[in-house]
Amino acid sequence: MAVKPIRLFGDPVLTTPAAEVTTFDKELRKLVKDLTETMLDAPGAGLAAPQLGVSLRVFTYDVDDEIGHLVNPVLDLSDEMQEGDEGCLSVPDLAFNTRRSMRVVAKGMTMHGEPVVLEGSELLARCIQHETDHLDGIMFVDRLDAETRKEAMKAIREAEWFGQQAPQVKISPHSISSRWL
């Protein structure tokens, strides 16, 4: 296990759909441990494999003192929506109002290849949607309305970290529950 550098906005791996996990082996278990350790160190509420430069459909989460992971997630989203500030470890120190489904049912696998269902609302639902977006090559800024996206892109271009390649970035707490997705 090790804390790994987190890829930053602009890295092509973050906008490339990740491959489905087909082998549930020691390497996958090591990836889940590295994701968890890096997420906790950041600190973050979630972290997807592409954020570490690994193009596989797996993410970890830490919401309401529940730490877990999900491999090959498939989501069923509620029609009821929520709005709230959302940040990202790949977009350090910035948060923007993002619209998400209020509840989610996520089906997937554990790192051992066992089927699992993860249900969440509010922050956990936001986290699951955010991390699954990473696996689909979608950044949360892609979900913003036009005006907010323009504001976000300006803030990103002006950020001190913009254009840097994969340093380990520690962020200051500044979003929902002081955690980043």
Automatic annotation (TrEMBL):
CDD domains assigned: Pep_deformylase (cd00487)
Keyword set, alphabetical order: Hydrolase, Iron, Metal-binding, Protein biosynthesis
GO molecular function: peptide deformylase activity
Co-factor binding comment: Binds 1 Fe(2+) ion.
Active site per database record: E131
Top-level taxon of origin: Bacteria
Catalytic activity annotation: N-terminal N-formyl-L-methionyl-[peptide] + H2O = N-terminal L-methionyl-[peptide] + formate
Entry cofactors: Fe(2+)
The protein's enzyme class: hydrolase
EC numbers for this chain: 3.5.1.88
KW Metal-binding (keyword) present: yes
Binding of Fe cation, residues: C88, H130, H134
Gene3D superfamilies, A to Z: Peptide deformylase
Family in the record: Belongs to the polypeptide deformylase family.
UniProt-listed NCBIfam families: pept_deformyl (TIGR00079), PRK00150.1-3 (NF001159)
Biological role: Removes the formyl group from the N-terminal Met of newly synthesized proteins. Requires at least a dipeptide for an efficient rate of reaction. N-terminal L-methionine is a prerequisite for activity but the enzyme has broad specificity at other positions.
Protein name as it appears in the record: Peptide deformylase
Source organism (scientific name): Longivirga aurantiaca
Gene name of the encoded protein: def
